[in-house]
Design goal:
By secondary structure, the protein is mainly β. Helix content is about 5%, strand content about 50%. A 6-stranded mixed β-sheet has the order 5-2-1-9-12-11, with no helix packed on it. Strands 6, 7, 8, 10 and 13 form a 5-stranded antiparallel β-sheet that branches. A two-stranded antiparallel sheet has the order 3-4.
Length: about 220
């Protein structure tokens, strides 16, 4: 009813007096994808081992602790929020020490795209672009899928890649295929247009001649 949900155990349960039992409510396989999750605000050097869980069952998965096994080996612990049927959640559970990522901001680029004079006002439009470069080094023996998170800045528009793999309320998420023993690179380019206006002051004829002479001297080799 509404946002509530319930579990129904179809098979009857026989429980002896003064005894207790733990009953499995959901005993089904779920879909998912193993990946590494990098956010420099969490760890500047290493991503986290993670898993994209898809609730492919018809039941809600309740929030709580999770124990993660990779094959037959214990991999770590995590917590999960409520997951509705068909919904997805990212789970991170341990540092991925086999993978190193370096975030390298590049110098901003500036380009004047338009200049217009109208009614004594000079209007200039500048296109600014900035690039964030991520270098991924996978020292493991298996290729990995790396999910890189970058905070969203509403003042800048994403130019490259054309679209992220995912967008949340706060971050872009980009996927990078990282082969074993080989470096991989991701360049994220963002742009914005900045407008500037200048009021032109009329000059007297004598001032204009002086201005032209001084400007000529300034550009003479």
């Amino acid at each position: 009813v509404g946002e509530l949900f319930r579990y129904v155990i179809k098979a009857p349960v026989k429980l002896a007096r003064q005894k207790s039992a733990m009953l499995p409510i959901v005993n089904d396989a779920v879909k998912g994808e193993k990946l590494s999750i990098y956010n420099p605000a969490v760890h500047v050097k290493h991503p986290l081992n993670g898993f994209k869980l898809v609730n492919s069952t018809d039941l809600h998965l309740m929030q709580g602790p999770i124990t993660v096994f990779d094959g037959d080996a214990y991999a770590g612990d995590a917590r999960i929020e409520d997951v509705a049927p068909k919904a997805e959640r990212l789970i991170s559970y341990a540092l991925d020490l086999d993978t190193e990522i370096a975030s390298q901001p590049q110098p901003e680029q500036h380009e004047t795209i338009t200049a217009k004079i109208a009614k004594g006002v000079l209007s200039l439009s500048h296109r600014q672009s900035r690039t964030q470069r991520f270098l991924v080094k996978n020292s493991g023996t298996r290729p990995k899928q790396v999910l890189i998170e970058l905070p969203i800045d509403s003042a800048w528009k994403l130019a490259e890649p054309k679209a992220p793999a995912e967008t949340t309320r706060d971050v872009y998420r980009f996927t990078v295929a990282s082969p074993a023993g080989k470096p991989a690179t991701l360049n994220v380019i963002q742009e914005r247009v900045v407008e500037e206006t200048f009021e032109l002051i009329p000059l007297a004829e004598s001032q204009l001649v002086t201005f032209i002479q001084s400007s000529s001297k300034a550009i003479t080799p």
